[in-house]
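Task: sequence in, structure out. Protein: DUF2851 family protein.
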Amino acid sequence: MNERLLQYIWQFQYFNKHQLQTTDQETLTIFFPGLLNTHQGPDFSQAKIQIGNTTWVGSVEVHIKTSDWLKHGHDGDLHYDQVILHVVWQDDRPGNKPGNHPVLALCNLVPKVLLSRYEQLLQQKGFIPCENSIAGVKDIVWQGWKERLLVERLSRKAAMVLEHFDNNRHSWEDVFWWQLAANFGLKVNRDAFEAVARSLPVQLLARHRNQVQQLEALLLGQAGLLAGESEDQYVVLLQKEYSFLQKKYRLPVVHSPVYFLRMRPANFPTIRLAQLAMLVHQSLHLFSIIVETKDLATIARLFAIKPNDYWLYHYRLNQPTAYREKQLGATMFDSIVINTICPVLFAYGLYHQQEPVKNKAVNWLLATRAEQNGITDDFKQIGIRCKHAGDSQALLELKTRYCREKRCLDCAVGNSILKTTMNPK
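Result:
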């Protein structure tokens, strides 16, 4: 038994309530168990019970043992003055009630089948604790739970965006630029690309928007990719541009290296930075455009970019290759929508209390193709499929924030499975 499970049992009243009595043999009737409190103070508030002939409204505190009241330091704590019932698993202080509150012991009132099913979930070693039972969960449960998981994930990402926003003189364009550049770096070069973006504010880039070679020089130079001698005329041009601009703006050195190893050529940092330069060249104040734009298709057209002609014959500087166009692909655009556009848009809606903007972020995820990765593949193997990115983001949140931590009691799917155990019909 653990305290979270005991809270769950009390919250949903999964125990025998017939002829309930306190440990003092007083008749107990429960009208309302109260609202679960996740903040400081008693576990449940606004409960309503009757002990003997007296009706009480107040808080309920839940512990494994009666003596935990003292161990947790509740005695003398003003937050617990409104407690009307102390719910415990085991009464280890019979006749001696800390806090002098009525005590209800549940150890002999809870069905063993519930405890057994919960123990099975915790002991499950598969992909997720409930993988053998999940197929029986009703669609209506899944639908509501995935919607909540998606909002939880967006809210968590938005909190990180807002932290950057607060630390950056409240510039949405710069924060979006940082997130966008990091996204272009993919997992391997994410930190390095973000460091490059942070060293090149949007206002600085705006001065050179009309010269894509200068934008490339700034990005490639700050990424440390223009060092060394070269006989390639284009590289020499970029080196000269970067040398001048680096001195002019006293650009800081970026110490995060970029990597090429074990990457597809289309994802080489040189190609991604060249695409990023072209995106800035064509649409500098991107985030303002995104906030004002209603449909995702318009944004997709803005991201349908190709780097300049040099990159038709190169994946890396100084190393010519056969002709190959390097247009930003649909999969990469989907990644940008999922990991940059929608989280920053949702954060903007939160900050300005604009529900339509938050709803747009959610709707754009529902209009984007689902991600394909190890987690979504494993869910597919147990019968849970993704229709769109909203689904895949919800499942990622479920796996990483609930299943890995075995928070089955906080999960609507886990709750449904345990309720089925209690009510098999």
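The mean pLDDT is 93.
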